[in-house]
Amino acid sequence: MVVLVMAVNALGYVAQRMLGARSGLPLSGFASGFVSSTATIGGMGQRAAAHPEQQSSCVAAAALSNVATMAQMALVLAALSPTLLSHLLVPLIAAGIATALVGGLSTFRAWREPQSEAPGLRGRPFEPKQALLFAALVTGILLFSAILGSTFGSGGVLVAAGIAGFADVHAAAASVAQMFSANQVGIDQAEWAVVLGIVCNTASKVLVAFATGGRRFAWQLMPSLVALLAGFTLTVWLWQPALP
Fold first, then answer.
1. 76: which of 83, 87, 107, 118 lies 20 to 30 Å off by Cα?
2. Could you give the CA distance from residue 232 to residue 244 in angstroms, rounded to a whole number?
């Protein structure tokens, strides 16, 4: 996780040098989201805290990383359970579009605001101490998840998906898809297990945003996370009765 955060920061640094903060950071955020959206949010939060003049670009990058999360989840489900994907494809598209719209608005806001490019170029590509602090936070979340697992047991698919979601939403979706393919859970239970995984993963992202970027960064990122949750959850709820 430390390496991921440092890599995200380095990618943002290179993209900023090549394209400038207003274009480079959102693009690097979207690309980094395919590796880890949580790490991307942590990396952009660190950059926003170090360079407040790039706040809007960092928020846009963090928001767009969630679009990549939805795309990658679709790929994971396609590989492990095409049937489950067929039930969740519309919610994934709805969540992706909703998040992309919010991310696009954040990018537009970043373009409209005057920003100084120089401060970001003088610093180092990444800050090892901040990356270590971020990794410590994620480790704490994982330990908390393990305590929940030992207390409530991992037999229930909802508990298992929620615990996995705190660390990695793709891991949560993969575990649910495998159980569904093995006929261990029904389609309704599988769908809502994925929803719970996304809810728990979003909660961990909120914690990371507050811890790395501060309240201003976290609150500006919140609309994209709410859009993702609302887009996915409401569509699962509304789309479910229409499916056989």
1. 107
2. 19
* Local structure of 125: helix, strand or coil: coil
Which residues are within 8 A (CB) of 180 and not within 5 positions of it... i.e. 6 or more apart?
Answer: 81, 83, 84, 186, 187, 190
d(CA 237, CA 235): 5
The DSSP secondary-structure symbol of 113 reads S
Closest to 43 measured CA to CA, from 98, 1, 71, 73: 1
Its sign, for the CA torsion 122, 128, 129, 132, is positive
Q: Are 194 and 173 in contact (CB under 8 A)?
A: yes
CB 58 within 8 A of CB 106: no
Q: What angle do CA 195, 108, 226 make, to 5 degrees?
A: 20
Cα 43 from Cα 62, distance rounded (Å): 9
Q: Does the pTM of the predicted model rise above 0.70?
A: yes
Structure-token pair, residue 117: 């490019």
Residue 133, Cβ density class (10 Å: 0-12 exposed, 13-18 middle, ≥19 buried) = middle
The model's pLDDT over 214-240, given as tens digits with 9 standing for 90+, comes to 999 999 999 999 999 999 999 998 876
